[in-house]
Design goal:
With 222 residues, this protein is of the alpha+beta class. The chain has a single domain, classed as 60s Ribosomal Protein L30, Chain: A, CATH 3.30.1330.60. Helix content is 45%, strand content 13%. The chain is built from seven helices and four strands, in the order H-H-H-H-E-H-E-H-E-E-H. Strands 1-4-2-3 form a four-stranded mixed β-sheet. Helix 5 crosses helix 6. It is elongated and about 50 Å long. It is found in: Cell outer membrane.
Length: 222
Amino acid sequence: MQKHQVLSVLVMGALVAVSGCAGTKTYSSFTNEAGALIAGGDFGNSTMNNTMVMSGEKNYVIDLARRFDADVGSTVTFEFNSSQLDQAAKLALQKQATWIRQFPEVRFRVYGHTDAVGSQGYNKSLGLRRARAVVNYLATQGVSRSRLEAVVSYGETQPLIVTEGRERRNRRTVTEVSGFVQRHPSILDGKYAAVVYREYIKSAEPRSTLSGIVGTEFQTTE
């Protein structure tokens, strides 16, 4: 075979190989956003999480959530197979509402839980009814519904006490800070001075007038 014929065969082979590769999806990632393959379809959520961390918003939400739980308690409990609020629950939610009203730019979520008695489907529905009952009551205490969500029910899947039987501590709702109305903590800058002043005045009150904040009415165990 002549030299020019060998060269022609090599060139034709290379063209065939390239044309064969052209039909594959080897380079399809170049038509998508950067990181799409790594993110597994959740690229937008990853970006949002990174933005919140870098802006400080995520840490601020966590700090506020911890303070809320320490100040007034985030949990109320329920009777078996019930979403009705008893007097102890209402007293606890009144304390929560007072705290929530002091932070008008903060949003909250209420998570509903049940014990393990009953089917998973029924318990999920019951947990959501409990969360909605709490949202409804907080709304009667002057908290805007636009800042309250009862969108998640864990049903029986996240018990405090691991047991198959009835357990009141598992039949609960948890109110948590979920974010900010305008998506950034700096919106509190113009109002935070009033919050600090309120805390300063409260710290000067005699201890006897503060005893109700951590009263036994919140410990509603069977």
